[in-house]
């Protein structure tokens, strides 16, 4: 049940309209409204609002400003590459685009304060003006005096203006080393499962009943809630997968009340979505095409991962396998793996002590070119002549970023490399060559 | 009647802040206020050059003191006619060149037309010094130079502005008062030798020496309405509410006092409490203050941890265990994933076995929230999974937020309590 927003400065109907637009955020909106006070009162010079991504910060602030018709300007700091762009947007939003002519090019905060003072003396405000800075964490990377300047803007320009900062990062990470004017810090908590359900069911499809959409949202939240609570992502996934959910209904196989059958139909689909669309390995357009194709090809659901599409020539694959073995096996174990008549591998004290740290946890180690070639020749089944084409494949592997070159570019006689692929990838490649790589890895002995 | 009451209640929101004007100077009347007033009066009336630094932590009232003194001084007619004021701020004037232009603009010297200042830095400096040097004690007007964020001026190249201003204040030229306001106690260390020697080493320290009793009195006076409030019956009721005598209110204020004595944070607390006053409850209740304190003193990172998904929380617990086992050594994603897999295979009933890329995305979300930070700036030479990271959370923060986490599965909680049981 929505709480009633009460405030004396504004009419009941405006507040009612506002309450309709912001669902599940009534407490935060009322705290913010109480802080803003009546339009002609001075508000605290700076307010800092933090909360998770897509927790309603910009939405609530924008709605309050628009519904109650307060003079404001919203600037997203992502768009402002330089401080001058930021000032220009603020002046344009508060005083109109002709006023930006007063600002010099690439203005500093001093010019901004001077121009603001001039404009505010020409057009005195009877209401508090609000400057809303979205993604405020980027202000920390701009000039050092920008953040402290904005925090005390009310004092610097001597006018009724308040700056509201919206950010994902907590206030502790913003504070400059010599301190600054501390703003009022407000927290927008994340939505819980019930609230997410309530908000997601707001955009139900017109041709189906809201109960059907609600049950779909339930199923989807059941799959995705433990992984992701971001409202935007969930909305995107819901929009993409709803048509697939309704397929059995359209085909006439099930009725709307048959939730179990609908669940059985959609669940593997959602699991696949988690591995592909959620990870952005596949674009949403491709995903939708794939959905339509699946009706005709009732084959196994293949992975749509990008990895499946890398095609390498025969020797390049062996070079990559050799590089992986060189990176993840310690050099002294090469004898045991690659020589026909090797002795037993004696375990020294050193090895016994450090057995637990597997190389797969620490990362690949660099190896010289000679070692790579030695392993390569022993791994490839037939005899290979050391021609330039083999060597050029090594450099093309480096360009593909499957190998990384370690050390200086100038070292031509003994270049060192590191293998930059994961175990799953190399296993997939080894499978195409019917090469059992696990047998050759020291960590899996 | 209630509507009028409500209007008045909300006039408080603006007036409360202006009440400080009447209150704080009473506390300073002892020394610093008189001292500063005398100093500036000597410059303005008797033509003596002075320099002084006002030092105090953030929010202790330096700017307020200065503006109060200036207001008091400018009420005298002969001062008001003669004195010129130049206000500079270290945040705005980041360079000596810009600062000099601002000075010439504020003094309305002849090379200013409209808003633009003509001439190069050297020319402006020469012009300004000429203008200041020509005068003497009797014939030229006294100038007050007020430098806010004084420590930032000390970072300019060669400290030319400071050198020149203090030089003028030491020699027998136009009477000049240089007043610097800063929050750094070691500001004199920042000055070069030649600048330091020209400074008069006069410092006014604004360190609050209030006891808790005096603090309570201050709170009481700040929350009471002035006598000229339009509705006298309402103001009487308000002033008699005896809020500070309540035990819970005293506890809250004691905790706040123990953390910081300055008035700015007190204002935020009182503002949050005041914003809960509505027509239905037209007085501040003790619960309002308790609630305001809870808002002020909330742990920000714990609030962020509250909104993480279960997978991300498991990753944080895995990192906590790694920190305990390896005593704070940096870890990489592969190690965290390994710990997570151990948990899934051995103990978990409720967590699904997620694929590695999904876990990687959760890890990157933690990085985006700045709960996990790479040890060095990211180099493309190292794969993402093997980059060394460190956790920016404390053991106690994690355990506390686990308590408050909604619907936390019990096996996750048990895993967090010990890695081995």
Automatic annotation (TrEMBL), chain A:
GO aspect biological process, one term? DNA replication initiation
Q: Which GO terms describe its cellular component?
A: nuclear origin of replication recognition complex
What domain of life does the native source organism fall in? Eukaryota
Origin recognition complex subunit 5 C-terminal domain location: 312-441
What sequence ranges are listed for the domain ORC5 lid? 213-280
**A Pfam family this chain is assigned to:** ORC5_lid
- Domain annotation Orc1-like AAA ATPase: ranges: 22-164
Protein name in UniProt: Origin recognition complex subunit 5
Annotated source species = Denticeps clupeoides (denticle herring)
TrEMBL record, chain B:
Gene3D superfamilies, per the entry: P-loop containing nucleotide triphosphate hydrolases
Q: Keywords on this record? A: ATP-binding, DNA replication, DNA-binding, Nucleotide-binding, Nucleus
> InterPro entries from the xrefs?
AAA+_ATPase, AAA_16, ORC4, ORC4_C, P-loop_NTPase
Q: Which GO terms describe its molecular function?
A: ATP binding; DNA replication origin binding
Q: Where in the cell is it found?
A: Nucleus
Every copy of the AAA+ ATPase domain together lies at 48-209
Q: Which residue positions does the secretion signal occupy?
A: none
Task: Provide the GO biological process annotations.
Answer: DNA replication initiation
- UniProt cross-references to CDD domains, sorted A to Z: AAA (cd00009)
Q: GO CC annotations? A: cytoplasm; nuclear origin of replication recognition complex
- Family classification: Belongs to the ORC4 family.
The protein, known as: Origin recognition complex subunit 4
Q: Which organism is it from?
A: Denticeps clupeoides (denticle herring)
